[in-house]
Design a protein that fits this description.
Keywords: Membrane, Signal, Transmembrane, Transmembrane helix. With about 325 residues, the chain is an alpha+beta fold. It is about 20% helix and about 25% strand.
Length: about 325
């Protein structure tokens, strides 16, 4: 049996396209845009001594983050209540991470298309690293998407409220057939709000490597209820959606797993699903099986051709010997 080379290449190309890649993008990347005069850029060489929020740089992604604040105190400078930003990307899913902090944090209102999510940390931890601020899956892979956000005053007595943005993860490689939602997808706006726990945060160090990993996401457990966690709770409101979105931090791709980073130093977010690993493992096993079949079929083809040539040569030699024998016997007759 002979397999055309084009068919073999098609199989291998189809296998390669099934691999999903998670790319970690630092807040210092141009994909992020921070609007307003009340953003501070914190880097290892440019700390912010005047900032009230002072997280541990070793627990952040690349040692950098953006500190934005809004101020409603009397005598606040103009524009003190106008702080916003955006993140632009191409991919099938997006996850935006920051550092949650008790008391000081405002409401962060995210929008992507017609989907709206509001993030606010209500726990008691001073700093919660790798906190999932926003996520969305099931996006078109061939389109450019932009997540926008604006800071609004939370219902607390704090006059100056601050938010810390750290990094994002973009999933690319295939259209996500499955997605995770924080409520049912409907053509009508959702009127319910759910309490979803913020991520349990363990420092994972600053390491980076490059690899393709699966990021399929399992179903959300936060459909209008409360999920228990060690990181406190995060309030989320979802509006009308043309695609599926979630804020469940338990199913975000992990910064501890190998990712492709867009900065020299990277660290790693929280918990990849076992279903995604199974999908990726299945793709790898399928590729190995296909490659093995191609090799076996090629060897079988070569063996059959060699056998045919050997048989032909053997028969030819016997015919030649018979012809010579008859030629020697004919004079005697």
């Amino acid at each position: 049996m002979w397999l055309p080379r084009s068919f073999t290449l098609f199989l291998l190309t189809d296998l390669a396209s099934a691999v999903v890649t998670n790319t970690t993008i630092d807040d210092s990347d141009p994909s992020f845009a921070f609007t307003g005069t009340f953003w501070n850029v914190i880097t290892p060489t440019s700390p912010c001594d005047s900032c009230s929020s002072k997280p541990d740089p070793s627990k952040t992604h690349g040692g950098t983050w953006h500190d934005g604040n809004i101020n409603r105190n009397p005598g606040a400078p103009p524009g003190a209540a106008n702080t916003s930003g955006s993140f632009t990307f191409m991919g099938t899913a997006v996850y935006i991470f920051g550092i949650d902090q008790a008391v000081l944090q405002p409401d962060i209102v995210f929008t992507l298309g017609s989907t709206k999510q509001v993030h606010h940390y209500t726990g008691t931890e001073s700093y919660v690293y790798d906190a999932l601020f926003f996520s969305a899956q099931g996006l078109a892979s061939d389109q450019t998407h932009t997540v926008n956000w604006v800071l609004t005053f939370a219902d607390t007595p704090v006059g100056v409220q601050a938010v810390l943005f750290d990094y994002a993860i973009v999933t690319s490689g295939e259209d996500a057939a499955e997605s995770t939602t924080s409520g049912p997808v409907s053509s009508q706006p959702l009127t319910t709000s759910s309490e979803v726990t913020a991520p349990n945060t363990t420092s994972l160090g600053n390491t980076v490597s490059s690899s393709s990993i699966s990021s399929g996401l399992g179903p959300s457990q936060s459909n209008g209820g409360i999920v228990q966690s060690n990181g406190g709770t995060s309030r989320t409101n979802s509006g009308e959606s043309q695609f599926d979105a979630t804020v469940s931090s338990q199913q975000a791709p992990s910064r501890s797993a190998p990712t492709t980073s867009k900065i020299p130093v990277a660290a790693a977010p929280v918990g990849a699903s076992s279903k995604s690993k199974s999908n990726n493992l299945g793709a790898i096993v399928g590729g190995v099986v296909i490659a093995a079949l191609v090799v076996v079929l090629s060897m079988l083809l070569v063996w059959r051709r060699l056998r045919r040539i050997t048989l032909f040569t053997h028969v030819k030699s016997h015919i030649l010997l018979l012809f010579l024998s008859l030629k020697e016997v004919s004079p005697l007759l």
